[in-house]
Input
Amino acid sequence: MSKSNFTRRGVLKTGAVAGAGLALPTYLNAASHGFTNAPTGGTVTLGFNVPQTGPYADEGADELRAYELAVEHLNGGGDGGMLNTFSSKVLEGNGILGKKVEYVTGDTQTKSDAARASAKSMIEKDGAVMITGGSSSGVAIAVQGLCQEAGVIFMAGLTHSNDTTGKDKKANGFRHFFNGYMSGAALAPVLANLYGNDRKAYHLTADYTWGWTQQESIAASTEALGWETVNDVRTPLAATDFSSYIAPVLNSGADVLVLNHYGGNMVNSLTNAVQFGLREKQVNGKNFEIVVPLFSRLMARGAGENIKGILGSTNWHWSLQDEGSKAFVKSFGTKYGFPPSQAAHTCYVQTLLYADAVARAGSFNPCAVAEALEGYEFDGLGNGPTLYRAEDHQCFKDVLVVKGKENPTSEFDLLEVVEVTPRAQVEYAPDHPMFAGGSLGSCNPGA
Amino acid sequence: MDAILLQTLNGLDKGSAYALIALGLTLIFGTLGVVNFAHGALFMIGAFCAVTLSRIFSWSYTVIDETKTDFLGNPLKVDVPYVQAWFGDEMGAAIIDWSVPLAIIFAIPIMIFIGYAMERGLIKHFYKRPHADQILVTFGLAIVLQEVVKYYFGANPIPTPAPDAFKGSFDFGAFLGMEPNAIIYPYWRMVYFMFAGIIIAGVFAFLQFTTFGMVVRAGMADRETVGLLGINIDRRFTIMFGIAAAVAGLAGVMYTPINSPNYHMGMDFLVLSFVVVVVGGMGSLPGAVLAGFMLGILESFASMNAIKSLIPGIDQIIIYLVAIVILLTRPRGLMGRKGVMED
Output
């Protein structure tokens, strides 16, 4: 008969300690490294937080495709995409700092609370060292705040509100996508050139952070060129039929309608405006015009023929002929069979930029990564020479003014580039009033 | 004056959609006593019947155009719809152009079948259950249906335009001798309003002037006695469920050119339509129609800048505000009957 050395008390003690260890959030396990979720072993985990359900699910799916492609390229698979054209050459296709890149995904549902919950779960349970993605400014600002508290880097996806790198900027957050101010600065001269300086604009604006900052930006830029803003009507985000907001426009004396709407709002308001025959009307002796300051090719599809001839701005378009864009379109198109969206582009680039910053810093420590990104000048990623400005973590690069194509050759060929506005024209001072009211604070490494 | 006329006109088409959905809702409640939260999903499925028919008509074969290239530099693949190959370019294009009106014929049998299957397959098991159970199961069904539609059609809105003949808008201002452009109204919205009028009149005539309708009305008033007379009232009520589904579906079909359909459009209308039914009076058909138009018009007025500047955010709450006032002053709604939902 053998005698066991286990005692009831001993087993309970060991069990309790082991249980506590397992239950401990993974980032606390890495406390010895001095930052949250320091990768151990041969892999590093990135968290892709995109809308997988809800109205922006298609945009989220395109973001996810881009992330998967970026991971493939970082790990040495595929044709390397933009790694071949990127001005920095520290990434060698062997993961990040020799660690194979793995990823987890979360569903933002385009709701701030759901996005924060999924980001929190990826950080605490899955050990994600960086969070990226999203398709809304409300979500981006919420998740950016969470990442700042948790001590991980946030590489924003599609977010266009001035506030993301304005009053709500954070030291751990970085935005590659352009913003409302840049849309205004790029679009206004083209509008004045095509439609004249003596115009009266009527704004319909989605009633949330992105709509407000875009309206303010477009109104300021166009007024500086002689336009008058006759009205700005805030429309509820949940609105689906905009007819009651559009019907009074012709009677207001305005000869331009500016739709500060995105996604389903944009599709419906533009469709309603065209139904009301606004584009066939003459007001003040001029053709009535409609402007959609932020265009998304994915969303434009929903508006069908209504986007023909409508001017707007966009961060990037697959028809660009620089080497970086061509390489990305080739990789993405070969893998998925259709060209990438601007959301896909910014997400792919953000992943590469993060990996590159880690490699240059020689560390996954978010403070080292942030330092490597701040003031970083690069090229070859699709928008010409680009700067990640240290003062607000906003990328400065060329902006595209686009127009709905009159004779599209396919369902992807909806926009044509009217002008590539040079970076210098869309730059602004870090203390610009539209971006005032917040501060980056200091970098938080977490644990 | 012109602003009032303008917003009244605007409210009419919105009210038409509310009235059509609420009519079906209240018909189901009045006959079967079921609170059907999946009714908005039927509106959405109707809209996707139009999308499906448009896709069937646009079903294409691929021709390689060597003179052009696609985004990867390969020869461009051009889709040629079969209808154009079979009926010639002009006729084929006309068929595709008229896909929304043609979808009415396509949608009626589909919607009646879906309504029938829904009632026999699921809802009949909840007749004797509390209203809370009915709401939960039908709301769950609505979510399942919209997720199925999203799976097959994606999350983005799908443009489904009206025929070219109905594009543009009518200048009521010029017609009434006012300033040009003072009151404009899109042709398709006029079509929608008239269509809604015909459907509503059709449903009322069916219930009022046919033997079937008479039996249904008798069943609504006293189900037990009608059953005692040897009439299979359940079967007739099932058919009424199918008709209510078809009414919601047709409202959806004709709504597609107004706003590009997406998978959650049913939910957007559902809550408002319920408010319409409650304001009109549970189980009251004329009440649903009256409340539908009334709330549609009020919602339009609340969107006016003059009113919004007086009470900010009024456009988002007006319907609920009116519902509260009406329920406080007339607890059974505008035309509600005694004894309905009061047990």
Chain B has a mean pLDDT of 89.
